[in-house]
Amino acid sequence: MKFFATRRMSKHLSVFTCLLLVFAFMLSACNSNSATDKDGATQDSVVATEIDTQTFVFSSGIKVGGTDVSGMAFDEAFQKVESAAEATVNDFTLKVKADEKEFSYTKKDFKISFNVEEKLMEAAKFCESTGYSAETATDFALEVVVDKDSVMKIVNAIAKETDVKAVDSTFAVDGDRVNISREKAGKSLDKDALCQKILEEVKKLAKGSTKTATIEAVVNEVEPKRHYEDFDGTIKLIASYNTYSTNTPNGNHNMNLALESCDGSVIEPGEVWSFNECTGNSNLTSLGYLPATVIINGKFEEGVGGGLCQASSTIYNAALLANMVIEERYCHQFQSSYVPAGRDATIDYPYLDLKLSNPTDYPMYMQCYMEGTELTVNIYGWDDPSFDEIEIESYVYGATEEGYRAAATRVYYLDGKEVGREELHSSWYDYPKEETSTAATTAPKPTKPKEPKPTKPKATDPKETTPKVTQPATTVPSVTVPSTVVSDPVEPTTAKPQATSPTSQNNEQIETATAHY
Questions:
Q1: Which phi and psi (to 5°) does residue 23 adopt?
Q2: Cα 41 vs. chain centroid, distance in angstroms?
Q3: Which of 483, 492, 511 has its CA nearest to residue 436?
């Protein structure tokens, strides 16, 4: 068993005492030898630190903690009182009951000490005030001090045995079915309350006549954040999008591998999802990616990861239909053949990424797969009652001798009526500098863009709205299927990417990025 008490060394205390005396003299000139604390109580400005512990001797009749220190110097008294106090600590057993479990501890599990120095200084000050000639014997009682850190170590160990993390209700997709799990309540030990109880009980046991005591700990129930009822009838398939590949076998392999990496992604409310984080470095053959056609500086060449961008573009269009927030997106250098103009999303790890976020109060689930040459992305989530359909309008405009622009608009409908629209960032496409044996691009005719209405569907709080109850297995939202613009087995990209939001990427790196088309 270890006992602890702080003690000033005599050598250091003498120097410190001199400094305090000088400081006390300065205070006395301004405060008439008194000081007032923040509660308004007047105290002596010169405290017991005036005592020179090297020469001080306790007067007769002085006891500290029941130990007679008459005629002793300060250091001698300290050692005697501390030793005597240690011997008075009782052996005891403390039991703690928590959530039908019982834990037992003895005095060796705690760090116990006494306020010896404080009481010796108090006794020394008393001797000085009485002129070192007390008429009657005086005993300065000691108090037990229990180290709080030693108690918290015990409390934390109990918490590991009692605490149970709450399990939220969640959902998973199996084929076209949404399976919802039941929530489970958790448990949490009230550690602060238990710590205080132990501190008080150990003080009693250390000096009292009782040798055993039992404490009842409080273990609170922790409610899950999401319950089964939150998902039941509110989660369904909210968006689906398909594209068809005309790429090479290696390109198809790469896009299938990317979709497998993204499949099963759960995007929590407010969370930002990254395509590159799912796929990893798509430039590495060690991750399974193969050489296929890419675009480097406006030319079609062989490069690891070719075909990847059809996977990211398919996810991008599904995200648009699911009303996800587009945090980051870039267009290709040349218009892609597998999605309409303005609706592609190129990738070049680590410089160009597709990032999406979940604007609802419920998780979103991403289902991605490839069958043959067909790529499919389904997104499950909360069925927002403020609209029942989203369509994407796109058009080209501003054609020049070098290229043209494309714009896209997200349009919201409710019961067949438009209730809002959101303009997406425009894209710039160059005309290809060279012909390929399998691709041909025709310059689009400039068209006058429609004037967008600066409206968007009113946000609806899911907690205050009772959404439509739809069976997820039989409900498929309306989807705009893209028509093929050109017949091209490769996936064009861009040397002048258009980002949806500013990024910290180096502009030169973006300009020279390799498109994993």
A1: -65, -40
A2: 47
A3: 492
The neighbouring-strand residues paired with 396 are 406
| pLDDT tens column, 354-390 | 999 999 999 999 999 999 999 999 999 999 999 999 9
Phi then psi for residue 358, to 5 deg, are -95, 115
Select from 446, 427, 434 the least CA-distant residue to 490. 434
Tokens of 337: 């053949």
CA atoms of 14 and 21, how far apart (whole Å): 11
Closest listed residue to residue 294, CA positions, set 514, 441, 497: 514
In angstroms, the CA 58 to CA 80 distance is 13
Alpha carbons 152 and 136: distance in angstroms, whole number: 43
Using CA atoms, how far residue 76 sits from 70, 71, 114, 126, 379, in Å, is 11, 10, 16, 18, 79
User: Residue 243 pairs with which residues in a beta bridge?
Assistant: 375
In this structure, what token pair is assigned to residue 431? 């005309």
> Would you say 344 and 427 are in contact if contact means Cβ atoms under 8 Å apart?
yes
Higher pLDDT, 44 or 245: 245
Give the C-alpha separation, 470 to 385, whole Å.
Answer: 12
**CA pair distance 283, 287, nearest whole angstrom:** 8
Enter the pTM of the model: 0.60
